[in-house]
Design a protein that fits this description.
177 residues, alpha/beta, Rossmann fold, six-stranded mixed beta sheet
């Protein structure tokens, strides 16, 4: 896969494996398990060998998404600018899309770290039919720690993101790397 630092990308990531919800009174405070921490670092290591780093990060402010992002950074070996936002905590697909559409115009590569079902639905919504082989995989499960990698057309403004507007280049799952 040939990439360039000048390529435009959208990266969507579901938080990594979190502790069992029944053990916590506050779902927002659930941390990652050791498996989740390791998976997020491995995704970062895999990523840095293939794709350029994001210039902007939208991340839910829930404990498990924050930890996913921080461990991902360790795997990437880089510190990334991040916007932690409570609006992404269990956000709908439409709310997530609206947030992405507010990404500053000068930004070429964006990462969003959030929750299911919104992340899975957004990935499925944005994928065009041109990415059928990978798109097929979206019709199945979207496990914790999954990263969707979309190529964004150079002429497309973030505000123009719409259903079936992006090519899904890769779907990376922790258990498959």
């Amino acid at each position: 896969m040939q990439t360039s630092a000048n390529s435009r990308y959208l990266f969507l990531m579901r938080h990594a494996k979190a502790a069992n919800a029944s053990a916590y009174d506050d779902d927002h405070a659930r941390p990652l398990t050791e498996i989740g921490l390791d998976a997020a670092r491995r995704i970062g290591q895999h990523w840095q060998a293939i794709w350029p780093l994001p210039e902007w990060v939208w991340c839910s402010d829930a404990m498990r998404t924050k930890q996913t992002f921080l461990e991902l950074q360790k795997g990437l070996g880089a510190e990334l600018p991040v916007q932690f936002d409570n609006a992404l905590y269990m956000a709908s697909t439409g709310d997530m899309l609206a947030m992405l559409q507010r990404t500053p115009a000068a930004i070429e590569r964006v990462l969003m770290v959030a929750h299911n079902p919104g992340t899975h639905h957004l990935a499925h919504t944005l994928a065009s039919d041109a990415s059928l082989d990978v798109h097929d995989a979206l019709n199945h499960k979207y496990p914790t720690g999954t990263l969707s990698v979309f190529r964004v057309p150079n002429e497309m403004a973030w505000g123009d993101l719409a259903p079936a507007s992006l090519t899904l280049e890769a779907l990376v799952m922790p258990k498959k790397i």
